[in-house]
Amino acid sequence: MSKAAATVATARDGGALARLARWLDQPKVLAWLMLGPAVLYVVAFVGFPFVLAIALSLSDATIGDPSLDNFVGLSNYATVIQTDAFQLALRNSLIVTAGVICLILVLATLASELLVYSFRGKRLFQTLFILPWAMPVSLAAIVWLWFLDSTFSPVDWILVELGVLGPGSPLGPYSHMYYLGREWLGLASTIVADVWRMLPLATIIVLAGRLSIPEERFEQARIDGAGVFRILFRITIPALKPMLIVAILFTSLLVIGEMSMIEILTRGGPGHSTQVLPYWAYLKGIAGGSLAQGAAIALFLFPFLLVVSVLALRAAYRAQEA
Amino acid sequence: MSPPVLKHTHRFGQIAAAALAALAIFSIGSTAALGEELKPAAPEFPTSYGKMQFPDQFPDGTSITLTQWSHFVPRYDEWFDQYAQKWGEAHNVNVTVNHISIGDVPSTLAASIGAGQGPTLFEMNAAPAAFIEGLKPLGDVNAAAKAAFGERAQTCRHSSYLPAKDIWYGFCHGWVPDPGVYRTDLWQEAGYPDGPVSYKDLLEGGAKIFEETGIPVAVGMSPELDSEFYTRALIWSFGGSVQDENGNVVFDSPETLAAVEYQKKLFENAMTPEVFAWNPASNNQTYIAGTASYIQNSISFFRSAQEIGSPVTENTGFRPGLEGPGGEARMPSHVWFIYVMPDYVTDKDKIAAAKKFALDLENNYSSASYYAKFYNFPAFRSQVPQLFKEGGWLDNDPWGSEPADKLAILGTAPKWTVWLGYPGYANPAVGEVYQTHVLSTMMANVARGEASPEEAVDNAAAQIRKIFEKWRERGFVGGGE
């Protein structure tokens, strides 16, 4: 190939590359390229299973025959709603989620206030603080299972040593509290364990917002004579509102769809008094073999979660605008 | 210098110690000799069972995968893995064994059926009748086993055959007795030298022990396997049941009501609220910790306690099923070992190899039972004569029970052991009632005062009827006329 021909070819390649670069630079193309993997992921791992779950809930599929060839309308929803177990599971899912969110909001705000300052051992504290989130949920649940065990609970041992638990003591005649064997103690134990696990994530989210508040605003407030609580309620919390809403959203979605904690701690007992929807859906659909009814139970929270998510995101957007 | 009396005592002590040592050596020697005599024979792999013929060697490239639950006696899994490899080498088959948690087996089978691919054989711990549409019928294997091994345990037959469809959906190779377990020292002190014989004894003696020592009766009322089995044992022994022989729901009977009222009394007089959120390991832990006077469980906890040298093993006694008011005693099998083959397995060599593996395992069940430390009982008692014969393994436990015949009562287990669905067959409706904890929830609601016995029984019966109707419409349950 002559030198002139090579030059022409190179120019042609350069032209093609340049054209490709210009095409890729178009905002529409670039947007699709950047969003493509995420969209594919959502379609494959969220959209498809979601549509499949809807289809299953409208069929009479069983675990041995998961085919969708028999449409039964909303009868699975009508059947599951009538049962005591479902009603208790729905109630408990909402109680546990609301309880976790309330505690998380207070504790994450306090923790972010603490972590914004420098102090000796802060790094160690941060590492220990993040551990519950880094731990697999089943392992975390087993830790709490032993902590609250009906025979070996160290909490009970301390209470007995303090004289507040045991025969003739204020907390009753037994030497154990049986945290997981009593309805409201069981629910409270689940909330505490979930808070322990979720607090690091919520704190990180809130801390990001806290660090973005200009320090001058706090200094100005202090110069104007504002105390700790006034600064907290008049400056910190209003400025943190968007991040707190994000923390609420993440926490509620993660807690309401979680079944391992209940499965390991109480298995939904006593009776169904600590049952939650995801675990009941598993028991009914997979263990019990009624795949269609399990899908109906699992999907029941979807409209509720959709509304909560839309409202929360809208509130966060408005707060940011303000 | 020691005073003369002490010297004499010292010498006497030496003589006594020597005599005891000689006796111990003699006992060990004779036990060892007995153990050698009764030890399982080396595995044998015949090429035919009944009408089924198999090749000596399978074609190159044949492989099978087994997914089964991790055994509660770890020694069994060690033996099984070696056995499976030996079997594979003998048949030119590549055998892979996956041990998974017992709770994960149904969901793994469901996922495999959904995906249309996965292991060749699954070992289920309870009748997997709900999966029947995704499973291959194993009538030929069951017929071959009957021809080769003879009489089958009723608990296995009723947990692998569905009369409504006339299909053998599984091959049950073994089952596990679920005896009553009591603390001999506590019950002797309470005036019951042989432990509780009836539910009346359990209530009266258990209440006395609880009052005097604070140690409760520890039978579960939690949504888990042991609680479900205890509840059924109680109801059966009182004369009630979930269904009749034909699959009709007969739960709301006076007998069931009497059993529920009994349980409320037992809870109020001899138990604590710890039983409401137990998992399957909880009663074992509580018993080994010395804080239970009576539990209902298989012997795996006893083997674990032996291994860690727990002193509680010395004061442990076993009972067959407790008698109800009419003198009937019924206990469920604790678990079963049921092989099923999903419908997606289509390779002829794989199918033949898997079927031969299952039959060979039953043929060599004396090893399986021995290395499970007698946790596994055979589906066909002809395969483990050492287990049931007088002076056999249960009378002279080679795994170190003291006294050596502590487990002898298990030899009568086939007489008092029944199955999920008794007196009818296990079926998907029975399975769903069991897996969604309808009965243990009913008991817990009554014991906690959330419902009267009458309300709880009516409520449970209504739930059970709905579940049965759903499966009956699909043709899985008989009765209903």
From TrEMBL, chain A:
<feature type="domain" description="ABC transmembrane type-1">
    <location>
        <begin position="90"/>
        <end position="312"/>
    </location>
</feature>
<keyword id="KW-0812">Transmembrane</keyword>
<dbReference type="GO" id="GO:0005886">
    <property type="term" value="C:plasma membrane"/>
</dbReference>
<feature type="transmembrane region" description="Helical">
    <location>
        <begin position="243"/>
        <end position="266"/>
    </location>
</feature>
<feature type="transmembrane region" description="Helical">
    <location>
        <begin position="286"/>
        <end position="313"/>
    </location>
</feature>
<comment type="similarity">
    <text>Belongs to the binding-protein-dependent transport system permease family.</text>
</comment>
<dbReference type="InterPro" id="IPR000515">
    <property type="entry name" value="MetI-like"/>
</dbReference>
<keyword id="KW-1003">Cell membrane</keyword>
<dbReference type="Pfam" id="PF00528">
    <property type="entry name" value="BPD_transp_1"/>
</dbReference>
<feature type="transmembrane region" description="Helical">
    <location>
        <begin position="184"/>
        <end position="208"/>
    </location>
</feature>
<keyword id="KW-0762">Sugar transport</keyword>
<feature type="transmembrane region" description="Helical">
    <location>
        <begin position="29"/>
        <end position="58"/>
    </location>
</feature>
<keyword id="KW-0813">Transport</keyword>
<dbReference type="InterPro" id="IPR035906">
    <property type="entry name" value="MetI-like_sf"/>
</dbReference>
<feature type="transmembrane region" description="Helical">
    <location>
        <begin position="94"/>
        <end position="116"/>
    </location>
</feature>
<dbReference type="GO" id="GO:0055085">
    <property type="term" value="P:transmembrane transport"/>
</dbReference>
<feature type="transmembrane region" description="Helical">
    <location>
        <begin position="128"/>
        <end position="147"/>
    </location>
</feature>
<keyword id="KW-0472">Membrane</keyword>
<keyword id="KW-1133">Transmembrane helix</keyword>
<protein>
    <submittedName>
        <fullName>Multiple sugar transport system permease protein</fullName>
    </submittedName>
</protein>
Automatic annotation (TrEMBL), chain B:
<keyword id="KW-0813">Transport</keyword>
<dbReference type="InterPro" id="IPR050490">
    <property type="entry name" value="Bact_solute-bd_prot1"/>
</dbReference>
<protein>
    <submittedName>
        <fullName>Multiple sugar transport system substrate-binding protein</fullName>
    </submittedName>
</protein>
<dbReference type="InterPro" id="IPR006059">
    <property type="entry name" value="SBP"/>
</dbReference>
<keyword id="KW-0762">Sugar transport</keyword>
<dbReference type="GO" id="GO:0042597">
    <property type="term" value="C:periplasmic space"/>
</dbReference>
<comment type="similarity">
    <text>Belongs to the bacterial solute-binding protein 1 family.</text>
</comment>
<keyword id="KW-0732">Signal</keyword>
<dbReference type="Pfam" id="PF13416">
    <property type="entry name" value="SBP_bac_8"/>
</dbReference>
